[in-house]
Amino acid sequence: MRAHIVIFLVILTGSLSAQSIQNRIVHNDPSTYRDLTSVHAGAGSMGFTELIGRKELSSNFLYLHTGTIAGKSGIGHHFHHDIEEMYVLLSGEAEFTINGRTSKIEAPAIVPCKMGDSHAIYNATDQPVQWLNFAVSTVKGRGGAFDLGDDRVGATLDPIPVFVSGKLDKALLKTERSPITGKGVSHRRILNPTVFTTDWNSVDHLTIPKGTKTNPYQLEGMEAVYYVINGSGTVTVDGKSGTFGKDDAFFGRVGEHITFNNTGNEEVELLAIEISASKKWNIKRPLKEPKAMVLEMDFVVEKKNAQAFEEMYYSIYVPAMIVQDGYLSSKLLRLYSPDEAKEIQAEPTTYNYQILISFETEQKRRNWVASDQHQIAWPAATALAKEFKWRGYFVMGDDEQ
User: Fold this and answer.
1) Helices (H) then strands (E): counts for the chain
2) Which of 33, 50, 129, 247 is deepest in the core (most CB within 10 A)?
3) Residue 205's closest CA among 119, 274, 298, 287?
4) How far apart (Å, rounded) are the C-alpha atoms in residues 352 and 9?
C-alpha cells in the first residue's frame, strides 16, 4: 500500500510539475461567450462563459464566470443556499439588488452576495456592461439556486446602498501591509474573512508598477484566483513562468510560491481572490515556542488483558488526569491487526497500545506525575502491561479544530 501511495504521489507531483503554467492562464474573450436569455428569470439577454471551474482547485472554489449584460437585461432575483458569490462590474453601471433593496452601482466595483442573501442585477441603460462572478461553495462542487421570478425591472432605488459593496479605486491603495511585496506595489484588502460564511478568505486589489518584479510569496493554507484588470507581464509559480495580459485569469494552489513581473509598458492592476483550504481547521504559521507538550507511552498488553486495559483508560486514567492543572487531552490507541499492518507495510513492533497525554507545559505534566491521582492511575496501567516505555515531545504545530 505504501509503495502504491508513493507511486501515486510521484505521478501526481510529476503531472503538476510538468503542467505548463501558461495552460492555467485563460483569456476573457467575448467571441467565446454563449448567448443566454431569462437567466434566473431575468430580463433580456446576456453573454456568458466560464474562465475557471470547480475542478481546477482543491479548495471549495466553484467558478469564475464572466460575460456581458445587454442593455435592458439582467440576472433575476434568486437565492443560493450553498454558495457565496461576488459580482465584479468592469464597465458601465447596473442596478444591484440584495435582499430586496436596490441601488445603482458604477464600475469598477464589487458586490458580494453572502450565502442566503437574495440578489439580482439589472442593466437599465442601453449599453452593455461587462461583469465577472466569483463563487465559493460550502461543499466541493455543489451549486444550486432558487429563483424568485422577479426580474427587478423598474425597482425602486436607494440612493445609498444598504448592502456591502466596494469600489476598485486605485486612489485607495496603499503600500503598507501588502501580502505581495515589491518596489512601489500598492494594495488594498477590500473584503476580509469575516464577510464570508464559506471558506472564502479575502478579496484584494493591487497594482504593480512598470518594471517591478515582486518578491516571491507563498500561498500558506490558501489558494488564489487572479484577474488582470490592466497591464501585462509574467507570473512565476514554483519556478515555472507564463505570460499574462489584460483580461486574463489564472490561479495558484496551496503551498505554491508566486512571483509577478511587470514586463509591459503600463501598470499591472490585479484582483486577487483567496480561498482557505478550510476555515474550520486552525492552521497557523510555525511556532517559535511550543504551545504544549505530549507524552507518548507504548505498552505491550496481552490479549487477555486488552479489554481491561481499555476500560482502565476510561475508568481510572482519564478521570485522574482531567482534574490536573494544565491537562489538555489524551488518546488511547490500539495497534492495527497483523493483516492490516502488513497491508500498509507498517513497521513491525511488539507494542500494541499507546496512550498520548498532553499538558500545557512539561512542568505541569511533572506535577501530575507527583500527584496522588498519578500514584493510582500509573500502577493501574502498568499492572496490565508486560512492558512499557515512553518519550516526550514539544507541540510545535497542530491542526486542531
Assistant:
1) 6, 26
2) 129
3) 274
4) 30
pLDDT in tens, 144-197: 899 999 999 999 999 999 999 999 999 999 987 788 999 999 999 999 999 999
Per-block mean pLDDT, blocks of 10 residues, the chain (401 long)? 41 46 96 97 97 94 97 97 96 97 98 96 97 96 93 97 95 88 94 94 96 94 96 96 98 95 97 89 72 96 97 95 95 96 95 97 96 95 97 88 54
What is the value of pTM for the model shown?
A: 0.76
Give the residue from 74, 93, 256 showing the smallest Cα distance to 161.
Answer: 93
Question: Which residues are CB-contacts of 19 (< 8 A; sequence separation ≥ 6)?
Answer: none
For 170-276, CATH number?
2.60.120.10
User: Angle 372-382/362-369 helices, nearest 10 degrees?
Assistant: 80
Indicate the class that CATH gives domain 22-167: mainly beta
What pairing do the DSSP bridges indicate for beta strands 186-191 and 200-208?
antiparallel
* Phi, psi for 363 (deg, rounded to 5): -60, -40
Nearest Cα to Cα of residue 188 among 199, 171, 203, 173: 173
d(CA 306, CA 356): 17
